[in-house]
Structure prediction request, 224 residues.
Amino acid sequence: MKNIFLFTTSVFLLFTSFHFNNSSENIEGLVAISTDKVNIFYIGVLNPISVAISGVPIEATKVSISKGIVSPSHIKGQYYVRVFEVGKVMVYLEGKDKQGNTVWSSSEFRVKRIPGPIAVLGRIAGHPFGSYDRTRTIGRGLLAILEDFDFDVRFEALSFEVQYVRQGEEIKTFYNEGSAFSPEILKVGDDIQIGDTYHFDKLRVIGPDSLIRELPSFTFTIKE
Prediction:
């Protein structure tokens, strides 16, 4: 997840008032808890955040979370958040200023699951409503990728079925475990012809959130 370690400009800032436990006055200050990618925490990835309290050294700042794990990065003021349940969590920030006053704040974040990926054969994306080909090859296996997502997330194909159809011949059905095609499927592909059809069904994949997903079936036809 190389992109997770590249902290970008903060996209979400939450500002609150400082609260001093030994003062009867409300003294206005700035507390910032910002996500370095999106204002949502995703299950299964390291969600980077940055924190700061005006007038409080970062070494004197404590960060905690209501449900999950917070761990510091190698950069001061930046942390990684891991969450495990869909819903909402609270991130708490606490520290002491130079006068010894306690400053605290909390911010709420939504927690979501990683979106579902799409099935890909080589560079050709499978589509449940059509069949097409530009390369006259089915490649060496099936991949599941997540498009337009802020994190570099990898999915693993667990299993799927392939029905091979050639005009004038009986339908052949293959069960495949993992992403790489079995020797039987590759052997059929060695004699590929225009008009051959491959129907992929029961595609099961798993992502870093440990959720097993079943992707939509799709058909792939060899064309000129």
In short: Confidence is low (pLDDT under 50) at residues 1-29, 123-136.
